[in-house]
Amino acid sequence: MSYGASASMGSGSRSGRRTTEFGRTYVVRPKGKHQATVVWLHGLGDNGSSWSQLLEGLPMSNIKWICPTAPTRPVSLVGGFACTAWCDVAEISEDSPDDLEGLDASAAHIATLLSTEPRDVKLGVGGFSMGAAAALYSATCFALGTYGNGSLYPINLRAVVGLSGWLPFSRGLRNKIEGSHDAARRASSLPILMCHGNCDDVVPYSYGEKSAHSLMSAGFRYVSFRSYEGVGHYTLPREMDEVRSWLSGRLGLDDSRS
Q1: InterPro entries recorded for this chain (predicted)?
Q2: C-alpha distances in angstroms, 50 versus 3, 119, 124?
Q3: CATH top-level class of 23-250
C-alpha cells in the first residue's frame, strides 16, 4: 500500500462543515460505442491512476471508466496518518462507527462525475476495499433517494460492483427501505456484484459476506456474492473476468469496437 499525497482536506470539527478536496481523476475512454460509464474507486492509500491502467487492459470496449482519486485525510485506522481515503475509518468491523460526512462527500463526488454523461449511457459505480464501501454506500443512497444528510441523490444507477469491501451504515437500512415504496422499488431493481477472497486479512471475509446478506435482507434482490478460495486482499485476473462478464450482462453491452 502506497501513501501518495495527491489531494488535501481542510481540518475541522464534526460540528463544522469540512472542505473536501479530491485528487486527480483519470479517464479511460471507450474504444467502441459508448454504452456505459462506470466510476471506479481505489482502496485506502491508492490513487485513480493504478486502477485506470488495470481497467484499460480489460476487453470492454463500450465502457468509459472514470477513476477519481480520494482526498488525502488523516485516517484513524493507520494512527491518524494522512493518506488518500474516501472516508475516515477506525477499524474494519461492523462495530466501527461510520463517517457519514466523508461517505456523503464521496458519494456526491461520484454523482457529480456521472451527472454530465449522455442520457442514453447507463451509469454504474464500483470499487475495491474502501472504494467498494463507498460504491455500496452509493447503492443505498440511490435506493433511498437521498444521501445520509437528507439531500436528494440525483443519479440513476444501473449496476454496482464491490471487490473485497463492506457495506457502511447497514444498521437500520432494511427499515428505511421497507418504509418507502419508491426506495423498495429502486433497491429491487439494482444489480450488485460483490467478490471477496476467503483469506482476506484486511477486510474479513465474514464481514463482506454479512454485508451482502444485509443488502439482500434490505430488499436488494439482485445481489451476487462470489467467494474466492485461498485469496487475500487483492484482485485476480479471473475475478476481473467475472466483473467484465457480469457488467456486460447487466448493462447489456455488445462489446463491439464499432
Answers
A1: AB_hydrolase_fold, PLipase/COase/thioEstase
A2: 13, 29, 19
A3: alpha beta
